[in-house]
Every structure is written in structure tokens, then in C-alpha cells.
Amino acid sequence: MDSEKSPATEFISADAHEAKDLIASGYRYLDVRMVEDFNKGHVDVESVFNIAYFIMTPEGRVKNPQFLEQVLSVCSKEDGLIVGCGTGDRSRLATVDLLNADFKHVRNMGGGYRSWHEAGLGVKKEA
């Protein structure tokens, strides 16, 4: 009998309006874009935080080896999280990683920040 966990291959996505409702009910918004992109514009909710899923190195863009550790430094595996990026690609990868690390209440925001912005929901730009 194989005792290893199989990777999460299925997860629940939420569109921008569903994400907004979940955030209003207590979920937090995890933006996994690089800080430069986050600062250009992000979801305007009180419970937003930014931890990059990819980082730039001399070799180019690579997965952030500290991603899970950094997420755990600001929330628990029981917290509700909406994971978003620019278009939904990076956030899908991050969502799977979080689920594989036993986070319990994680949803990918389909379409990412672009879909939130196009839905006319609040956005914020950092100074």
C-alpha cells in the first residue's frame, strides 16, 4: 500500500464576484504576483497580502522556494484563502501547492486580477 499522498489535481475556482463574497465572509486574498506587479494594481480589500509564487534570480524566473513558509508566516492552514495573480495561471499552481501542503480552505480566483478589474470591483495602486 502506497502511503504517499497524491498531489491535488482538482480544486475549486471562484470568479471575481464569488471571490468578493468569500472575502466579505472572512477569506483573505493572497496575491501571488511579484511585488512590482502587485504595486501597479491589486484587489482593494482589507485582507489582501502579497507573496510571490515566482521570483527573479540571476538564472531567470523560478518558483519561490520559500513560498509555503512565507504563507505560513502570515496565516494558518485553516484560514480561508482566495489565491489570485494577473490572469489565473500562477494562482492555479500556487493553489495546488497550498492544497498539497494541507491548507483546508483555498480557492483559485479564475481570471486573476484582470477579471476582478474587468468586473468593475475595487482596485488599489501602491504609491
TrEMBL record:
Q: Where is the Rhodanese domain?
A: 23-125
| CDD domains tied to this protein | RHOD
Task: Quote the InterPro entries the UniProt record gives.
Answer: Rhodanese-like_dom, Rhodanese-like_dom_sf, STR17/STR18/HARC1-like
What SMART domains does the database record attribute to this sequence?
RHOD (SM00450)
Task: Report the superkingdom from the record.
Answer: Eukaryota
Q: Which SUPFAM superfamilies match?
A: Rhodanese/Cell cycle control phosphatase
Protein name as catalogued:
Rhodanese domain-containing protein
